[in-house]
Design brief:
Elements (H helix, E strand, L loop, with lengths): L2 E5 L2 E4 L4 E8 L6 E8 L6 E6 L6 E3 L7 E6 L6 E6 L8 E9 L15 E2 L3 E6 L1
Parallel strand pairs: 2-11
Antiparallel strand pairs: 1-3, 3-8, 4-5, 4-9, 5-6, 7-8, 9-10, 9-11
């Protein structure tokens, strides 16, 4: 059974930093592209970042480019995805979700939520002004 679990959310002041983590079990993490999405109250879910299974291809939404960094650790003891978020703004406040999709291509880094197969329950990020 596949499980995707996010952690690391919390309350932070504007300008601060948070590091989100996502662990995935029940799948061969090495061959899964991973993504981060977020959804603010009253808004649609939006793609924040994704990373191919090799780590060689990444994507960032324009709104987070230069502030957020996605990374992954494919070591079997970790199977972890991270999102380092710096210079946080109140508009970054949202529930953040981690998602996974199987991929044979080392460059596959899907930006649409509809391409992902497995989702976590989310972790709340709140940025105060």
């Amino acid at each position: 059974q596949v499980q995707v679990v996010e952690s690391g959310g919390g309350l932070v002041q504007a300008g601060g930093s948070l590091r989100l983590s996502c662990t995935a079990s029940g799948l061969t993490f090495d061959y899964y592209a991973m993504g981060w999405f977020r959804q603010a109250p009253g808004k649609e879910r939006e793609g924040v970042s994704c990373i191919s299974w090799t780590g060689g291809n990444t994507y960032y939404a324009d709104s987070v480019k230069g502030r957020f960094t996605i990374s992954r650790d494919n070591a079997k003891t970790k199977n972890t995805l991270h999102l380092q978020m710096n210079s946080l703004k109140p508009e970054d406040t949202a529930m953040y979700y981690c998602a996974a999709v199987a991929s044979y291509s080392g460059d596959y880094c899907p930006t649409s939520e509809y391409e992902y197969s497995y989702w976590g329950q989310g972790t709340q990020v709140t940025v105060s002004s």
